[in-house]
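(Deposited chain)
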Amino acid sequence: MFVLKSAAPGVRVISVPTDKFKTNIIEVSVAVPLDENAAANALLASLLTRTCKAYPDFSKLNAKLDELYGASLGSYVGKTGDAQVISFYVTCLDDRFSLDGESITKECLKLLAGMIFEPNIKNNSFGKEALATEKRLLVNSIKAELDDKQTYALKKCTELMCANEPYGRPETGTVEEVESVKMSEVYAAWKNLLKIGRFHIVAVGNFDVDEITGLFAGKFEKINREPCTIDTIFFKKGLHFKRGVEQFQMKQGKLVFGFRTGMENSNDNYYAEKVMVDIFGGGTYSKLFANVREKMSLAYYCSAKLIDSKGIVFVQSGIDTDKEKAVSTAIINQLDDMRTGKFDDETVAASKRALRERLTLSTPGSICSWYKSFILEDEIRTPEEIADGYDKVTKEEICEAAMKLSVDKIYMLEAVESEVESVED
C-alpha cells in the first residue's frame, strides 16, 4: 500500500514503505504543458542535475555521492498525455546497511531538493559552457534516434497523427529548437517549473513520509504557486486519414498504424481497452503475433500498444517493403475478427494472466514508475486494483472496445537500396 500526502498546492507526496530492497529511490516528477518550451525544459532537467549551489562542480558533487555509499542521481524527460514530464531522481543504499547508523536517505533527500530549488546559478545563468555542453548532448541524443528505425517510425507516426495537438510534439523539442534555446529561456523555464508545475513525488523504501512532506512544504513556502491545469485532447474517432511515407537505406521496412480508441479520457473504458489491445497484439497468444507474424509470415514482428493517457493505439510491424498492402489488409482483418468475437476463452484467460503478471513490480524503480504514471490522475490505484479490473472484463466488452477502434494515420518507413527524400501521400 501507499501513503498520500500534500506538501503544497499541486504538490503530492506518495510513499511506498518497504524493506524488501537494499536500495531506496525517490523521484520528483513535474508535469507542465507540452508546448514550445519543451526544449528549454529538457535542457533545464540536465543542467539541474549537473551541479547545485552546495556542490558547484562535478568533483564536489561526485565526492558527496561517494560519501553517500555510491548514491546516484539523474533526470529524464517524457510525456504523459498532453503534458511534458520532467523527472529528477536519486537512488541510495537503505539506512539499515550504513555504518554507524548514518542517515543516507535523509542526506540524499536534501541533495535532491537542493538541486531542484537551489541550483548553481550566477546572475540568472547556469553557465555558458554548461548550457553548450547540454545542448550538444541533447542534439546528439535526438539525432541518435535515427539509428533505431522502429522508434523513429513510431515517433513520425505520432507527429503525423497528432500534428495539431500537444502530444505530437517531441518531448525534448527538435534539434532546431534545442540549438536556438537562450540562457534566459532556461532560467525562465526553471522559475516557471516551480510556479506552475504539478509536482508528483514518489518515494519507495524506508523513508519518513512526514519528513519528505515537510521538506518540500518548506521549499514551496516562498513560491507563489499557480499549478497548471493540463487537459489532454481526446478524439473519439479517427480524423482525416493520411499516409506518411519516408525512405531509408536499410533492409527492413517499418509500418505503423495509428488508431483512435473512442476513449474520452484516460479512465474511460480503461480495463476493456487494455485487454482488447493485448489480445489484438500483446503477447504470443495475440491475433497479430499468431496470425500476421507466425501463420502468414508477413512480418518480422507485429504488435499493438495502448497509450491510455492519450486514447490512441499504435500497431507496429517490421516488414518487407513490398508486402505493405498485404500486411495492412491482414492487420485490419485481425481487427475485424476482434470486433466479431473470433477469439476463444483460452486467449482471453491467457491475456488476463499476462496482464496481471506484468503488474508484478519487483524493483524499487518499477514501483516508482508505477505510481509516477498517475501524475495527471486524481485517483491513484494499486497494481492489485488494476489486475482485479482486468479480471472482470467480459468478451462482449472486448468486442465493443474493438468496434470503437478507427484508423487515423498510417506511417511507412520504406527500405530502399539508396537514400531518397521523404514524401507524403
Residues 24 and 205 are 5 Å apart (CA to CA). The radius of gyration is 23 Å.
